Amino acid sequence: MASSLSTVALAYYTLPAVATLLHAVLGYWIYRRHWDRAGAKWFVITLGTGGLSAFFFWIYLLAPPVGVKRALFFPIVLFAFCSYISFTVFTGRYTGSNFHRHWLVRAAFAIILGGFVVLSLFRPAGLYTSNVRLIQEPITYYAYEVEAGLGGIYLLIYLLGGYNIYKLFVYTLSTSAQATRQLALLIAAVLSVIGITAASEFGLFPAEHLNHATYATILFNVFATLALFRFDLLNVQPVARNAVVENLRDPVLVLDSERRVVDFNEASTRIWPDLDAHVGEPFEAACPTLAEEVDPAGDDEGARLTMPADGRDRHYSVTVSRVARRDGDDEWLSVLLRDVTALEQSRWQLQKQNERLDQVASTISHDLRNPINVADGYTEILQGMIDEDGLDADEGEQALTHLDQIQTSHDRMEAIIDDILTIAREGKTVDETNPVSLATAAKDAWENVDTSDARLTVDGDCTLQADRSKFLSILENCFRNALDHGPHDVTVEVGATADGFYIEDDGPGIPAEHASNVFEYGYTTTDEGTGLGLSIVKTMAESHGWTVDHDTDYDDGARFVFSEASSEPVTETPPSVVE
């Protein structure tokens, strides 16, 4: 019997030193390897304060009964309470719920620490401890009865521990399989401390009146060691449902294998305020409007619908994802409604703008052309009348000169109308493109322009994704610009670049004072030009998503560089010349 008691006593005196060592080793290892991980600092604080409590408890057991032993009660309990509080903060940070920031939890922290310090200093009767007595079997320690004040603090500690278990359990159910074992070990660690401490209160250990919380931390460290070294506790933080899905601004529904609504996030209640009452019901019954538009079993990827939310209609894009459960026996579905109201409003505005452009083009085409045609008709009549009436030579010549000027103005107005119509109708964003050869398009565009004695040189080739008709218009307008402002035998060169192409000529170039205005509407340096040619070039380039710039560093004429064009180089070919 004595031998048995001696073994028990040896265990009681030795295990606190083991607990202290485990706290120190684990805390140092985390500090060295995982200090930057989520929650690592608070886990180290938990181990540090718990280790200090275990150390003072070990000294308490070895100290003589008189004086020192009773004085050590304060640091033992204070550091133990700090350890429980820091682990609560760790749990909140590690799971991403941050419940430790709630005012009730913070109030509990303040009551635990502040209340214990006050009770320890003043030791009011009936609130701290009573019936303190020295026990010498199987080891020497002080026993005491816990009074109401200290008992309330102990109760708060138990409530914190229970809440930690609850939060870890909830996140175990809602997080990925990768983190399940980590969380299970953390739950086991907390349960071991609570369970052993509660068992010691019921006198289930040899030292019936001793608080065995320090011995419980050995199991806590064992489970923490497994979680750290076997399952990378601090390397992977759980991606919990409440931290991600619940905080999404877009509604999310979860359907089981029988297409019943089994879960949803808070955003869903903006559309279906009473959705909580329909959990477990078929999808068609819980969300009838959505079910009419979307078939979860079919392929409704990207379906769009309009539903009321927060008192007004909103537009949603619906995405259905299939999720295989871990057992593999059935398949669940998640239905995500992406709010695209702003996008739909922008699309509506763009549609209205396009309609207005079409109206402007129609007005220009009909309402302006008709008066011009009428004026042209009267001009012809006047020409005939002048010829018939036989005005004298001077008057007739002057009248014909004026009529020619009127006709020239009409022709210029016709050209401007054509260019404006081109900008209005062809300047819309290109929806469909096809592979187009730069060299082939350049030669075809050259054939569409009256080039006289000018020459075209094609230096290299590439394949562009473009609307061929608009691309030809870009080339033709650049060619006309070179022909209108250059000599009759100007040479125009087209070539490929790393992200597009260039068009250059050996004409007089663009004066420096006009270099920044060449793409402005109406800008021209001749009386015959409309000033819209290069504006059309820029508009059509931008409709492809390209940019066009005037190369001011080019000194041998004018050079325009088109960039951000999706191009693929073609096998290098020698330059070709088109007369």
**Ends apart, CA distance between termini:** 119 Å
Helicity, as a percent range: 40-55%
The total number of structural domains is 3
Total number of helical segments?
Answer: 16
Number of strands: 16
CATH topology of the largest domain: Rhopdopsin 7-helix transmembrane proteins
Oligomer: single chain
Give the strand order of the largest sheet, numbering strands 1, 2, ... along the chain: 13-14-12-11-9-16
Category from helices, strands and their pairing = alpha+beta
Q: What fraction of the residues are assigned to beta strands by DSSP?
A: 15-25%
- Gyration radius, rounded: 43 Å
Highest CATH level, the class of the largest domain: Mainly Alpha
CATH superfamily of the largest domain: Rhodopsin 7-helix transmembrane proteins
Based on Cα principal axes, name the global outline. elongated
Low-confidence stretches: none
Largest sheet geometry: 6 strands, mixed
> Residue-averaged pLDDT, rounded?
79
Instruction: Based on the coordinates given, report the CATH architecture of the largest domain.
Output: Up-down Bundle
Protein name: histidine kinase
Keywords: Kinase, Membrane, Phosphoprotein, Transferase, Transmembrane, Transmembrane helix, Two-component regulatory system
GO molecular function: phosphorelay sensor kinase activity
EC number: 2.7.13.3
